[in-house]
Every structure is written in structure tokens, then in C-alpha cells.
Design goal:
Layout lengths: L1 E8 L2 E8 L4 H8 L18 E4 L2 E4 L12 E3 L13 H8 L9 H14 L5 H7 L10 H11 L1 H4 L3 H13 L1
Parallel strand pairs: 1-5
Antiparallel strand pairs: 1-2, 3-4, 3-5
Helix pairs in contact: 2-5
Bound molecules: FE2/S2 (inorganic) cluster (FES) (2 copies).
Length: 173
């Protein structure tokens, strides 16, 4: 069985036919060919597949593709603007050593983005809670938390993620 779904993918309206049994992760990687979203455990345990649906971080390996109908999907590829300028969180991960092998990084960044979009002044405790479901095999948690904290207005007073979302991402995605 298959069904047609309409959704917004990284800012672009899209229509496609999806299998009833497909996961959102399958749709993103195998059908759309966007490989930034990683597959780790495939069972909701590692967070490597984290994407944002309607503003919320979700494990795409557990999310049925058919349920994306009418919703807005954002993957790591949707963060940088058209000219290749990285999102502040992506820059922060590079600058703070938050990326080691990089396998967990897309999921960590998406979890961080969902948090800061909702709560631009997230504290360290709130950051830890937001990425609690994201495992880093390289165990670089200190640098990952520092990376997200460096973008949080809790540190800077300036809600940079929100500004990016409204001025840049909306325009160029
Ligand atoms: S691959 Fe989805 S949570 Fe691990
Ligand atoms: S940087 Fe290697 S798994 Fe996190």
C-alpha cells in the first residue's frame, strides 16, 4: 500500500507517494537521497536520526513517513543558507570541538536547534535534557554541550537562533 503526502521539506513544498511501512528516515535517506540524517540503532535509542517536524525534534527512525502529510520537515541540510553559510549552531560545533567523528553531529545539532528555537535562553541543564536521547560514541559531550551553550542567549543575551530562523532560513530555505 502507498499513499500520497504533501509536506514542506527544508522550506520547499513537496508531494510524493510513500509506502505505508516506510519510516521518515527511509524517506529522507533512501527516497530523497539526503544523507546528512544518520541511521544508528534504527530503534529510537541513539538519536542519530533526529530531525525537526513542526518545530519538534523527533527520531525519524520511529516516525512513519505517511505521518509527515501536512507537516514541515527540517533536516540538517536545511540549516545552512543558500550561499553555504552555516547555521550558528553548525559553526559553534566546529569552533568548540563538538564534532569528533561527526556521526552524532547532525542529530545533536537538530536537537539543539529545536531546543533553542523553543527556548533561546536554554541553560546547561536544559541543554543536557534536550540531548539526553542523543548518544555520542566519541563521548565528546562536554564540547557538544559547550557548543549549544555558546549559541544560547543564556550566555550571550542575543537570541541568535531565532534571528536566523526568521530572517535567513525562512528566506533562503
Ligand atoms: S537511528 Fe533513530 S534513534 Fe537511533
Ligand atoms: S562525534 Fe563521534 S559519535 Fe559523536
Amino acid at each position: 500500500m502507498a499513499r500520497e503526502v504533501s509536506f514542506v521539506f527544508n522550506g520547499n513544498p513537496m508531494k510524493m507517494t510513500v509506502g505505508d511501512h516506510w519510516t521518515l528516515l527511509h524517506l529522507i535517506r533512501e527516497e530523497l537521497g539526503y544523507l546528512g540524517t544518520k541511521e544508528g540503532c534504527g530503534s529510537g535509542e541513539c538519536g542519530a536520526c533526529t530531525v525537526i517536524v513542526d518545530g519538534e525534534a523527533v527520531n525519524s527512525c520511529l516516525f512513519l513517513a505517511a505521518e509527515i502529510d501536512g507537516r514541515e520537515l527540517l533536516t540538517i541540510e536545511g540549516l545552512a543558507v543558500g550561499d553555504g553559510t552555516l547555521h550558528p549552531l553548525q559553526k559553534a560545533f566546529i569552533e568548540n570541538g563538538g564534532i569528533q567523528c561527526g556521526f552524532c553531529s547532525p542529530g545533536m545539532i537538530m536537537a539543539g536547534k529545536a531546543l533553542l528555537d523553543e527556548n533561546p535562553n536554554a541553560t546547561e541543564e536544559e541543554i543536557k535534557e534536550a540531548i539526553a536521547g542523543n548518544l555520542c560514541r566519541c563521548t565528546g559531550y562536554v564540547q557538544i554541550i559547550e557548543s549549544i551553550k555558546s549559541v544560547s542567549g543564556h550566555q550571550t543575551e542575543e537570541p541568535r537562533v531565532i534571528a536566523w530562523k526568521t530572517e535567513e532560513n525562512d528566506r533562503d530555505a
